[in-house]
Each structure stands twice: as C-alpha cells, then as structure tokens.
Design brief:
The complex is a heterodimer. By secondary structure, chain A is α+β, with helices and mostly antiparallel strands. Chain A contains 15 helices and eleven strands. The chains are: A alpha+beta, B alpha+beta.
C-alpha cells in the first residue's frame, strides 16, 4: 500500500500537565528558601535574589550595584582574587552575578560532588569581600570599554533609548550608563553598598540534586547572613504620547526598531489574554509579524514582540533590525498588523494553531525540571505562585477570538506607543 | 554516558534512539553531513542558505512550521562548517507528525521561486545584522581568509560576501539538495518519551521509500602546511584595537586534537587561566583575552583573541601574548591544574546532559564522527593525557611560521 503523504498523522493535545510547587523553608535569619529537587541531575544552582537599592543612589552613581556585585570575586579577607579564581575553577563551579533594575542576583552553579567544599567560600564573598583598588581600576576600564563598544551597536542603542523613553530619563529604570558614570565610582561607594544594601529582603531559589545534607549546609552558611531591610518605593508608570525618536547613523547598514508601551500587572484579569495577543502578533515563528515582514517580504532576519517582566506592571516591545530603505514600510506594516488583530477576529484555523503551539510549548518548558524554579521565581517576584500557570493553561484552552479583539482594543493604542529607530 | 540503541534503514539512514521516560516530550534531531566545507568559491554560504529553504514548503505541506505548531511542536536548525542540524521538539504523543514532516522535506522539498527569493533577502539581512552591522563583526571573515589558502574553511558559514548570496541559481540549490539531503548522508536521533520498536516502525513507514543519493560529493581541497607567518592589518571604526592570532591544528579525530583542546583549556579558559591572570588582571595591554579551538572535522584553528585597553596597540599586545605562550611551551603542567581541567570536563558533562535536546544533538554529532560512544571515550582519553604530551603538542602547534595574525586597528571617525 502506498503511503498517503498528503494526510497528516492523527494528533492529540496533552491534557494533564503537572506543575510542581516548590518546597519552602525558612532559614534562621528569616530568609525564605524555595527549592525544587531534581534528583536525576547532579548539578546544583543556588541563587540569592535581593532587591536593588534605588532610592538612595544618585544618578551619577548608577553603576554602584553593578560594581559591588562584580567586585565580590576580586578578594576576601582570607583569599585574594587569584586564589578565589583558582578555587572556583578547580571545583568547576561558577559564581554568576546580575545587577538588575529591580533585583540583584548572586548565583552559585556547582555539582553535588563539590557543593560542601564551595558553599563556605561562596558565603565569604557575601561577608568578607575587600574591594581592592587595583582590581577596581581594571574592572572600571573594562566596563568603560564595554560601554563604548555596546553603544556602537544599533540594536543595543535602540533598546537603551526605548527604556529611556518608556520609564523617563530621570528614573532608575530609564537611565543609560555612560563612561562618565564608570569614572564616578569610588571604592567607598562599594563598601557602603556592600554593608547596607547587598542583601535587601533576599530570597533563595534552589534546584538540582539537593537533599538533607545540602539543605543543612545552606542553613549553616546562609542562615546566619545578616540581612538588610529597606523598601524601595512602588513605582507606577503611565503611557503618554511621545514623539518618534530617530537617531541617525550614516554608517549603519540596518535600522533597529523598537516600539512598545506599558501594560498591566501579571495579577490583572486581562493578563493572559494579552499574552496570547502578543504571541499571535509576534511571539512565535508562526506569528503575523514574522509571516509578513520576514517570510513574505524578506525585510528582516527577525522581528519579535515580547512582554517585559517587572514586579509591578509589565511592558511590551516589538524588536527588529531591518533593511534601512524599508524602515517606514515596516513600521506601517506593524501598525497594520496590530490594527488587524483589533478589528478582525482570528480565524478558527489560526486559533487552533496558536492554542496548540502554546500548550505544547508549555509542556516542553515545564518538562525541563532544572528550569522550573525560574518559572516559579518570575511569578513569585510579582507576588503570585504556580497557580498563575494553571490559570494561563486554562485560559489558552478556552479563549475565543473575541477575547483577542477585546484586549487589542483596550491596550494597544497607537497614541500610547513609543517608537525608537537607530540606524 | 547517554544510553542509546541504533539501526540503519536499507537506504542508509542511520537512526539512534535515546529513551528517557522522565519526560512527556520527544525530540527528533536530524543531522545532515554537509556544511560550508562542502561549498565552492563563488557559491559560498550555500549550506546555510539551504537550511533556510528547508523551512519552506514541501509537496504535501504548504507551511512547514504551521503544520508542526498545530500539534504543539516547535523547531529550529543550525549550520556550521561541517554539519547542518535540524531539531523538532513536540509532545511525545505526536511523534509521528515529526516523522511525516522530516521525511517529506527530505523527499519532496518544494523549492519554489517565492521561497528562494524571500530567503535570499532574509539571509542577506542576517549577514548584515550579525557580521557587518556589529563592531568587530567581520573579524572571522578576515581570519579565515588569511589562515586558509585552499580549504573551504577560508570563509565563514554565512558566506564570504553578500554577492555570492545574490548569485545563487535555482540549479545550484537543486544540485545541493540532491547531493546532500539524502538518507545515506543523514543521522536521525529520536529521544525522550519514545520506544525503540515504535521508532523502528515509524522510520520504516516514513523514510524507507526515500532513495539513497546518487550524486557523488565533490572532493574537498586539502590545506597544505603553512610555512611562513601571515599577517594582515584591518582598520575599522571601533573603540579599541583587537588582536586575533590563530595557529593551524589537527582535526577532530586526528592525533593531537585533544592535546590542543587541553592547551586552550589551561591557557585560556576561565578566570583562573594563565592568560586571564597574567595579561588581564596583572597587565596593562589587554582588556580581555581568551583562547579556544575551532573543533572542526578537517584541520582547524587554535584561536587567541583579545581586545586592547584604549590607547594600546594590537602589535604590542602580540608581544605580550607571545611571551606568555613561550613560557608555557617550556613549562610543566602541575597535577593541580590537570585535576582542575578534569573536574571541569566532568562538570561540563553534567551541565550538558540537563537538556534532552543537548543529549540528542551530542549523539547525532558523535555518530556523524563515526562512533556515538566516542562522546564518553573522548572524555576518558582527554582526562588521562599527561603534562609532557600537552607540552609536546604546544611546541608543535604554537610556532610563528604556523601563525596568522589580524591586527584589527581602531581608527578615528
């Protein structure tokens, strides 16, 4: 019998998707620890996540938390920088730091085999870092150089300017670090931040092959850390009409486009509908924007829309690097696609594809056990728990074309959208 | 260790099955043994461009991605100098859809005018976005062009220049498809919540009727040994000078390859490496530096790359680098450092195995080298190599007449 290749095989959309909740512990110092054990994976990832101190940092010192975090590996009272480097490399362990606008994170990535050796030294980074001048000078010159290289990239510059327009240039989230900001950082700034602001309301997120032995070590070494209490103000943002920002770069071969606005908190009843709207418009390879701008017109290698996560209210941005001669046409097409989604119901076929794609993507994301803790973290920081994902899954299964029209008309208003072009 | 079972269809398609029932996902990874090493002058970048065409339509499937998304799947691919690798992730219950899709694009790819022309534009934009519209973005065009005289490794996978992409003809594309996209030139790995017998049944059903290849592959020119140091100055509007110094080294399965890998692990990987400690932390010329190998099938390159502090030149940086390299060539590697490298190789195996997709790709890659078990064997051989063998190979590879240097100079705007 000949195989009929024109007929697609039967398929099923999985129904039972299990979303485990992390286990919660409280350490003696009051710090909450959330963990998801993955006994089949011998790696361990432990992340201390704290609030970034924004309220008492002046604009010219905006790189204080960045340098404080990055200098912790440059020497402690018991080991100098090169001894620390040797130590962590010898045990194939890594300390990753990230200085964000809302949160700072300090993460230890190691293996079960070496965990007991590295955890005491990891603690010492948080309690006895020395911030040597020589290493600070090198770090500063590296950072200044990096800033000047990044600024050359149209995509990076466009993202910076978009942030500035969205949050305002005086707001901590909207500021752009310049070389002069590197210059203004002094050792005393770091010592002060380390003392008063490194561990503001910290929480620990843990995953890997973790059992009683590792938990006891964490309790010993991290349960005695001294915690800083402080509260950043709760920021609220509003969309307001803003003129298109265009930074001309004669030598650039492409134009980088950023278009977006503030949205709503994850806890808002319309949030899941917005996620779906975003997916249909530009959130996956089958999206309207990819199909139109890339697969039909070939004006770009990639065009995406994405929702940026913040503790309060999230924001939304479309990103693309496009052929310079077609920048205006691409922007027109973007508005055309947004408008279409606001006025014409999504067809039954497209609805089926996007629903099934999102459910499959969901299953795939949640089947990678090592990533689960990060999925938890991102909703936990917005004051929610794993029920958020249960609700989202229910919404994806049940939503109808009218839901997409409704959120489109309510939230994606042309006057609210910030437009930035570099190149 | 990654567990697997394997079988081969009569048409030559090699199939590996990696069962992991802790997940409800399946991965189907197909590796075609073709990369930019199979290209010729004037038609460079064709292997990567062809990868884009594989996401167009087939005789029975109007839009590849949509058919997959409809059953909850997603896909992607990459091309490098040696291979083109396609992967699908989907709910394991829908495994057969992946077989339908992959077999139809191996058998019945529709090379339409529309796909050919649109993807030509997309790839030209990719060329600009990743290589031309970035500071230092074209550096590997210069390095490869300088280091290789005959071998196709002389151009990057994206292609030598945009002009080549503009000039592909429909016949080039068709010839490429019928030469390389044949079952006997492919390896399929099916991984996740799958069962061997079911994979056998589906492989027979969907792939057995696809004919083997009949067009012989072109011979790849061999690079002759380099006899004299090569240098090139590139002036560009970048914030600071960069130095790239590369040396020819053995290919993946050749003697000396693992020693070369160890040389760069020790000298240039991580914060505790010799280069980072001596040239960055305790020097004034380099803002950053690293060393690594291009792990290619044919003889590859050992790369030293760094950016200079502002006002420092690439030429003086080379002198500082040479001193450290010379000292390394006459040193003995301590047991502590060998143990460190061993610990790192062991941990790397743990980190790599976290993702199902990584395991599937590793199996496909090592099967393409001739032996899936070599994934584990390579690690065991590498971690037993003694100091004197590493130093011997350092002296063989790290010679001036074997080096090519790019001085990437910052010029004022």
């Amino acid at each position: 019998m000949t195989l009929d290749r024109s007929k697609a095989p039967e398929f099923l959309i999985p129904q039972d998707i299990h979303l485990p909740n992390p286990i919660k512990r409280t350490l003696p110092n009051g710090v909450h620890l959330y963990f998801i054990p993955t006994p089949e994976i011998d790696a361990i990832r432990l992340e201390i996540n704290s609030e970034t101190q924004n309220s008492s940092i002046s604009a010219d010192k905006k790189l204080t938390s960045f340098f404080t975090l990055h200098m912790m590996m440059e020497g402690t009272k018991s080991m100098d920088g090169s001894e620390l480097d040797d130590f962590f490399d010898f045990y194939a362990s890594e300390v990753e730091v990230h200085a964000g606008f809302e949160n700072n994170s300090i993460a230890l990535i190691t293996t079960k085999k070496h965990f007991s050796k590295v955890i005491p030294v990891f603690r010492s980074l948080l309690t006895e870092a020395t911030f040597p001048e020589k290493e600070l000078a090198k770090r500063k010159s590296q950072k200044a150089l990096n800033i000047s290289i990044q600024r050359e990239k149209t995509a990076v510059r466009a993202s910076q300017l978009f942030r500035q327009q969205l949050f305002g240039q005086d707001h901590p989230y909207g500021q752009i670090a310049e070389e002069a900001d590197v210059e203004s950082i002094q050792r005393d700034d770091l010592l002060k931040y380390y003392e008063t602001s490194l561990l503001i309301n910290p929480e620990i997120f843990l995953t890997g092959n973790v059992d009683a032995e590792e938990l006891a070590l964490i309790e010993t070494y991290l349960g005695s850390l001294i915690i800083n209490k402080d509260n950043n103000p709760a920021y609220t943002f509003e969309n307001k009409p803003t003129a298109r920002l265009y930074e001309d770069r004669k030598d650039a071969l492409q134009s980088s486009i950023r278009i977006g606005c503030h949205l709503i908190p994850k806890s808002h009843p319309d949030y899941h509908a917005l996620t779906v709207f975003n997916t249909i418009l530009g959130g996956y390879f089958g999206s309207r924007l990819i199909k139109n701008i890339r697969e039909d017109k070939g004006h770009t290698y990639g065009i995406y829309s994405t929702i940026g996560s913040l503790q309060g209210s999230d924001y939304w941005v479309i990103m693309a690097d496009v052929q310079k001669a077609f920048v205006n046409e691409v922007i027109e097409e973007i508005y055309k696609e947004i408008n279409l989604l606001k006025t014409t119901p999504v067809s039954a076929e497209e609805l089926e594809v996007v629903k099934n794609y999102m459910i499959g993507n969901f299953l795939s994301t949640f089947s990678s056990s090592f990533e689960l803790i990060n999925k938890f973290k991102s909703v936990h920081l917005a004051g929610l728990d794993m029920n958020f994902y249960e609700d989202k899954l229910d919404f994806i299964r049940d939503f109808e074309a009218e839901d997409i029209l409704a959120v489109g008309q309510k939230y994606f208003l042309k006057d609210d959208l910030i437009e930035v072009i570099v190149g | 260790m990654i567990n697997y079972q394997q079988f081969v269809l009569d048409n030559g398609l090699q199939v590996l099955v990696h069962e992991d029932h802790s997940t409800k996902i399946a991965v189907v990874n197909i590796l075609y043994k073709v990369g930019s090493r199979n290209e010729i002058e004037g038609k460079t970048g064709l292997a990567h461009y062809f990868e884009h065409l594989m996401f167009g339509s087939t005789k029975h499937i109007p839009v590849f991605d949509t058919a997959l998304e409809k059953v909850g799947g997603s896909c992607n691919a990459f091309t490098n100098t040696d291979i083109t690798n396609y992967y699908i992730t989907l709910p394991a219950v829908n495994l057969e859809t992946a077989f339908w899709l992959e077999s139809d694009r191996m058998m019945n790819l529709a090379l339409t005018e529309k796909t050919i022309e649109t993807q030509r534009k997309v790839v030209i934009e990719e060329f600009k976005q990743r290589y031309l519209n970035q500071p230092y973005g074209d550096i590997f065009h210069h390095i490869r062009g300088l280091a290789y005289d005959r071998h196709p490794y002389q151009w990057p996978t994206i292609g030598k220049e945009i002009e080549d992409i503009v000039n592909y003809k429909k016949e080039d594309v068709e010839e490429f498809y019928f030469t390389h996209y044949r079952p006997d030139n492919a390896i399929m790995v099916v991984a996740g919540d799958v069962a061997l017998e079911e994979v056998k049944r589906l492989s027979e059903k969907w792939f057995a009727e696809i004919p083997s290849g009949s067009i012989p592959k072109k011979t790849i020119p061999t690079e002759l040994p380099q006899v004299k140091k090569k240098t090139k100055i590139v002036a560009a509007k970048v914030p600071t000078d960069a130095l790239y110094k590369v040396y020819h080294m053995p290919g993946k399965m050749q003697e000396g390859y693992l020693e070369a890998d160890l040389i760069t692990d020790i000298i240039g990987f991580g914060r505790s490496s010799i280069l980072e400690q001596q040239l960055v932390k305790n020097g004034h010329t380099f803002a950053s530096i690293g060393a690594y190998i291009l792990g290619t099938v044919d003889p590859g390159l050992m790369v030293f790359s760094g950016k200079m502090e502002k006002g420092r030149s690439a030429e003086e940086a080379e002198k500082a680098l040479d001193e450290v390299v010379e000292a390394f060539k006459s040193s003995k590697i301590s047991d502590t450092i060998l143990q460190k490298v061993k610990n790192q190789a062991e941990a790397m195996k743990t980190y790599e195995s976290i993702q199902l997709l990584n395991r599937a790709m590793s199996l496909a890659y090592y099967a393409h080298l001739g032996n899936p078990n070599y994934y584990q064997e390579e690690y065991e051989i590498k971690t037993r190599i003694p100091s004197d063998k590493i130093i011997h190979w350092a002296n063989t590879i790290l010679q001036e007449e074997n080096a090519s240097v790019i001085y990437y100079k910052s010029v004022n705007k």
